[in-house]
């Protein structure tokens, strides 16, 4: 049986494709075995703690949406106890940088652009006290006549 150059080229192409795709799958598996920092994108963040979270896979679902913030070097850590602590520290850096609107080699996402704007300080005439309430609670109280 005579092997042509076209057959050799085809075999080499198949070999390269198989090798590259196995490396991609391996890289994805390695990436999945890490603690990752995620930013909540929907619905809005109620608190700074709610804004960034650490998990081994994307916690999106049930009406919540999350994404990994750039740069990935600051948002992926080994799946170990030390890696979890480092990921929590990185999440804190993202939170503080965004809250304080710090400028660095990369721009932090501003908390005021992602936070819920449904909270307010309310004076309750019935008691004379001031309280922090969610606007949805206030609407429910007004509808109830209190």
Task: Please tell me about this protein's structure.
45% of the residues lie in helices and 21% in strands. With 146 residues, it is α+β, with helices and mostly antiparallel strands. Strand 5 and strand 6 form a beta hairpin. The chain is elongated. The N terminus is likely disordered.
Summarize the structure.
This protein is an alpha+beta fold and 146 residues long. The protein has helices spanning 5-32, 48-51, 81-99, 111-114, 135-144; strands at residues 34-42, 52-55, 65-67, 76-78, 119-124, 129-134.
| Overall 3D shape | elongated
Gap from first CA to last CA = 92 Å
Helical content band = 40-55%
Q: How are helices and strands ordered from N to C?
A: HEHEEEHHEEH
| Annotation field: number of helices | 5
Q: How large, in whole angstroms, is the Cα Rg?
A: 25 Å
Query: Strand portion, in percent?
Result: 15-25%
Q: How many strand segments?
A: 6
Largest sheet: 4 strands, antiparallel
By secondary-structure content and strand pairing, the structural class works out as alpha+beta
Q: How many domains in all?
A: 3
Q: Report the mean per-residue pLDDT as an integer.
A: 74
Residue stretches low in confidence (pLDDT < 50, at least 5 long) are 3-30
């Amino acid at each position: 049986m005579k092997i042509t150059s076209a057959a050799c080229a085809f075999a080499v192409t198949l070999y390269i494709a198989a090798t590259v795709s196995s490396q991609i799958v391996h890289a994805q598996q390695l990436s999945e075995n890490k603690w990752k920092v995620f930013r909540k994108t929907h619905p809005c963040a109620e608190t700074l703690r709610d804004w960034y979270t650490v998990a081994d896979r994307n916690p999106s679902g049930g009406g919540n949406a999350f994404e990994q913030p750039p740069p990935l070097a600051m948002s992926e850590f080994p799946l170990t106890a030390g890696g979890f602590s480092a990921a929590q520290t990185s999440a804190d850096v993202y939170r503080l940088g965004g809250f304080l609107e710090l400028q660095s080699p990369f721009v932090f996402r501003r908390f005021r652009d992602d936070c819920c704007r449904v909270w307010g300080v309310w004076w309750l005439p019935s008691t004379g006290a001031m309280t922090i309430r969610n606007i949805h609670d206030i609407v429910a109280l007004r509808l109830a006549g209190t």
